[in-house]
Amino acid sequence: MHNHIKAESAEIRFEQVSVHYWSGARWLGGKVFKAVDNLNLVVEKNNLAIVGPSGAGKSTLIELLFGLRQPTIGEVFVCGFSLSACSSEQRRQLCQHIQLIPQEPQSSLNPHYTVYHILLEPLKNLGLMQDADKKIKQVLNDVGLNLNLLECSPQQLSVGQAQRVAIARALIVEPCVLVADEPTSSLDPVSRKQILNLLKHLQKSRCMRLILVTHDLSAAQDLCDEILVLENGKVVDRHNAKGLKTNSKHSMTQALLNAQNKNHKFTQWNKEIVYEI
Q1: Where are the alpha helices (DSSP H) in 67-216?
Q2: What CA–CA distance (Å, rounded) separates 180 from 115?
């Protein structure tokens, strides 16, 4: 296993990857649904946003990346290792290179654990117990949470606090790649902005690479260097984040940009109404 501190050590490659589902038995006329269709993708040094509408294949892509689903066709490589051929020990080591921030933070946190034990668990699993208490206190401080939350259960946390704990759990093993799955979808506008600012700060302070999976183009443009657009399991567009609006002509990208503009106008209108009241 390569040194995980180097960003190059966690190159991610999807080689002709397809994931097919059948609506029923083939002999009964079941039809195939292609959640991912012949995906060829290399993620190297840039922070990458993967955007697209519901059903575009974003969740399936994450499942493939973390070995939670096997491709029907093709192969996924992380750090040069084929995920389908990895031993259990190699998979364990890969967990120190790449970590996930889940979409629903509260449901992803063990309800029977305190925050302390939630943060201790990945250290135990990866054999990184040296100075464990120091690491836990440091990472909690890094995500802007008070140490008095260490004895709290997930049910005692706000949604924003739970998301910060989920981020801390991913950070504590010091990965070089952080995958964030719709990290602000369950948050109010104020908490959303705070979490985006936190992720931007962590990227720089920890020299991590971010893979952001989202339908939120504004977040993608704020946090990432490149934006990749998925539609029906295929990559239909890929551009520099800053030049997406002017350079992209694809209909799906334009639809996402239009939705972003409408949402921005609604937010501004809503603020004005609140102000008038």
Answers
A1: 88-97, 105-108, 115-125, 132-142, 159-171, 189-206
A2: 20
CA dist list (Å): 87 to 38, 50, 81, 90? 26, 28, 10, 5
What is residue 58's predicted lDDT score, i.e. its pLDDT? 93
Question: What is the maximal distance between C-alpha atoms in the chain?
Answer: 63
Q: What's this model's pTM, rounded to 2 decimal places? A: 0.86
Q: Name the residue among 182, 194, 170 with its Cα closest to residue 122.
A: 170
Give the pLDDT of residue 7: 47
Per-residue pLDDT tens over the stretch 50-63: 999 888 999 999 99
- Alpha-carbon torsion (188, 48, 126, 132), positive or negative: negative
What percent of the chain is predicted at pLDDT more than 70? 89
The residue type of 259 is A
Q: For residues 208, 48, 119 and 124, what is the CA-based torsion angle, rounded to 10 degrees?
A: -80
Find, among 75, 218, 95, 222, the residue nearest to 210 by Cα: 222
Element counts in the chain: helices (H) and strands (E): 10, 10
Instruction: Specify the 3-state DSSP secondary structure of 63.
Output: helix
What would the pLDDT profile of 188-229 be if each residue is shown by its tens digit? 889 999 999 999 999 989 888 999 999 888 899 999 999 999
* CA separation for the pair 247, 69 (Å, rounded): 34
CA atoms within 13 A on the CB side of 156: 10
| CA–CA distance, 67 with 197 (Å, rounded to integer) | 29
Spatial strand order of the sheet with 12-22 comes to 32-43, 12-22, 73-78, 81-82
Distance, CA of 242 to CA of 76 (rounded, Å): 29
**Residue pLDDT, tens place only, 158-193:** 999 999 999 999 999 999 899 999 998 888 889 999
Cβ-count burial of 28 within 10 angstroms (0-12 exposed, 13-18 middle, 19+ buried)?
A: exposed
